[in-house]
Amino acid sequence: DGHSQLSAYERKRLKNITENAKFFAALKLHKVSARLNQIANKKQLHGTKRSKPKKVEDETAPRRSMRLLRVEPLGIPAAEMPAQPALGEYPQVPAGPVPMVPEDQVEDSKWTEALLSTWMRISELKADDADRCTPDIERYQENLSSMVLSEENIRKVVKSRVCSMAIHPSESTILVAAGDKWGHIGLWNVSCGSEEGAHLFIPHNLEVSCMHFSPCNPAHLLSLSTDTLRCGDVTRAVFDEICRSEENFSSFDFLEDNASTAIVGHWNGMVAVVDRRTPGMSSELSADIGFKKTRTVHVHPMNKQYFLAAGLVNVCVFDVRYLKPQGNKPVSSLTGHTKSVASAYFSPVTGSRVVTVCADDKLRVYDTTSMSTTITVLSSIRHNSNTGRWLTRFRAIWDPKQEHCFVVGSMAQPRQINVFQDTGKLLHAFLNLDCLSSVCSINVVHPSQNILVGGNSSGRLHVF
Prior knowledge:
- This protein is an alpha+beta fold.
- Helix content is about 15%, strand content about 30%.
- The chain has a domain at about 245-385: YVTN repeat-like/Quinoprotein amine dehydrogenase (Methylamine Dehydrogenase, Chain H, 7 Propeller), CATH 2.130.10.
- The strands form seven sheets. The protein has a five-stranded antiparallel β-sheet, with no helix packed on it. A five-stranded mixed β-sheet has the order 15-16-17-18-22, with no helix packed on it. Strands 2-30-29-28 form a four-stranded antiparallel β-sheet, with no helix packed on it.
- A hairpin with a 6-residue loop joins β7 (about 210-215) and β8 (about 220-225).
- The termini are far apart.
- Residues about 75-90 have low confidence and may be disordered.
């Protein structure tokens, strides 16, 4: 045996190892292992080998939907169909004059003709302001309390949220214009009292941020959108183009009573002077006033050389006579704002007050009797201005009939429109639990009558 010195257990173990070795040798597993290694190495090499590219002419073009490519099938003539705007979009308004034809009018409409005829007729009448005077506060409050809202004086005039409004100065007929987010202008003859009193026009492509009836000729309605300033002339039934620019317009105001020149604010912080009497669509002067944004501009009612500009946290008075392309310095600065300013306007008669709306939830009134370098706050009013992204930001506007009182929208419940005195006192809240259930961000007051119009974010107007 040669292993006599081993124990019985060790001899048995050695025997088992020898038999197992003979068994596995008979299976020839080493050849199988080598074959498996050869196959594995071959697959690995094949996986890393770069395949030969196919010739372009041999490839079959991938199939694509002819509907998505807007191509008609071969052999079938394409029907000439007008291009339909995508959901939420509208056809682009071309540059130049635009006919004053309502959006939904296919042929001549007697109702539209009646509206435009009314606008033309009331524009020829001159308001008699010989006996007009500013009422005292007590009488003014009585007038406010007598103003009511009824269901027949509520109408959806534009399709989207109201961004600007203007009211015709006529003392016989209530004619209101509203501009919305998508470039629509709605005209509503409130005095008509019928469903056919409102019509929609599309003179712009984007948001109509500012509108004014001409102070010398109310047959003209000037409207400002992002890229163009237009004049709706009812005597010619056309929306003329006054100025066009690649810069985004934000607001405008007239520099003269004859409305021939205007100061225009830009969203990039610039301001421009526009003269309607000169040919061409460009401005006369573009000036950098040092703002990052210019939201609103407003001209002093008496000293027309001064205009007020409101930006992010900047509110300043400038002299238009000294504007130049660069390096402009303000005449006065209205300090105290800690967040972005939505609007700033002079008081209507003397311009001795300025009211601002700020995102820090404060309404501020300034005494601008003298244009000192720095003007401090006269009164500060706590007011929730957190309108969010779906509501137009509040703008506090002065009542043209009362030098020391202004109107502003409110987030309070029940929904209301507030009237404040420049001292900060709340004089009146316009509300109606049955008829007013939304926030009226944009408001306009008639220059001589006890009429207030509030516009909400669904395009609906409310007339008190």
